[in-house]
Amino acid sequence: MNDQALPQERDLPAGHHAVRRVHLMQAIAAPAPRRTTRRRILIGGLATAGLATGVAALIIAPGAKVGSNQPAPTTTFGSDQPIALMGATEVFTQAAKAASAQPDLKPRPDQFVYTESRNRQASLPGQPGGAIKRKVWLSADGTHAGLLDQQGSPNTMRLWLCDNQHQVKTGKDKLPPPVDLKNPPRDCANTPAYNKNLPTDPTLMRKWLYRNSMGGNPPDVQAFRTVGDTIRESYIAPKALSAMFTAAAKIPGVTVTRNAVDSAGRKGIAVGQTWNGLRQELIFAPKTYQLLGEREVFSNDHSFKPSGGKPSEPSTGGPKVKEGTVLYTSATLQTAVVDKAGQPPTK
């Protein structure tokens, strides 16, 4: 594989990479605007549910050629989890069935969506990478301050999140003040972590994805990225999530990646779309079709020709990276609904 230049970011959604590289992997001191760009991961089909003292917990068990639309070869990993022979449409169809079978937690407006994840950013010239452990509590209705607890490279921190503020007030040396769980910031406005009004009909959901996409990409590209942006660190009701996966199966340019691995080392089937040097992927467990995480892979495949946008072009300038380099990967380990920010979920 030849060395290529990292693609320019002009055709990506506004703030997409800046949020990942700075807000997530580095300082995470300036929460992003209304769109869910600040969020990185959410589990799709969730496995089990438990209720105890007002806490509903969902826990995930550990569970090729980039861009091939051919069925992935059968492979066994772990103990008895074969990677099935199927293409992108079949993967999304199975994921939709798995999502619809999950219990609906129905978060109350005053509750919080908790997400625990592992994230890894590739090290590139002038762009320090690293791995972090991330825990985040986000307000179900968006009227309360969110809370971030991050450990790893390059920064470890714990701070409140408020989208309507440039950043939570800082103390000396521009560092966030210590978090006092008994005194969260007031007058916070965040993107709700639970949207109970999402369409449950696949046709209406497809229209919603295209209508609510934000960014400078062609409509088909932006709609696929909106899938990940919407479910990441949010709670989506089972019927709506099923409709979203069914709708995503009909977005042009979506293909299968064989034997993808998330940042927790779990192998799975990835479905993704390549545009302007970046392949965005959602990784599913090959047996349960739960959404394990996401990947972003450098690819100079420009065969996809979406309608309504400029042709994809080979990138120029910037640091040199090899074809197939995984620039970013994530893994969601647990998603739960809890009563308070900072409250650990029931295991």
What's this entry about, in short?
This protein is α+β, with helices and mostly antiparallel strands.
What is the radius of gyration? 19 Å
Integer average pLDDT: 77
% residues in beta strands: 25-35%
Question: What is the succession of H and E elements?
Answer: EHEEEEHEEEEHHHEEEEEE
Helix content: 10-25%
Number of strands: 15
Q: What report would you give on this structure?
A:
It is built from 5 helices and 15 strands. By secondary structure, it is α+β, with helices and mostly antiparallel strands. Strand 2 and strand 3 form a beta hairpin. Helix 2 packs antiparallel against helix 5, helix 3 crosses helix 5 and helix 4 packs antiparallel against helix 5. It is globular and about 55 Å long. 50% of the residues are buried.
Topology:
Elements: E1 3-5, H1 16-24, E2 50-52, E3 55-59, E4 76-77, E5 81-82, H2 88-100, E6 112-121, E7 130-139, E8 146-152, E9 157-161, H3 202-211, H4 219-231, H5 238-248, E10 254-261, E11 267-275, E12 278-284, E13 291-298, E14 320-322, E15 326-338
Helix pairs in contact: 2-5, 3-4, 3-5, 4-5
Features:
347 residues, alpha+beta, 11-stranded antiparallel sheet, two-stranded antiparallel ribbon, 15 strands, globular, disordered N terminus
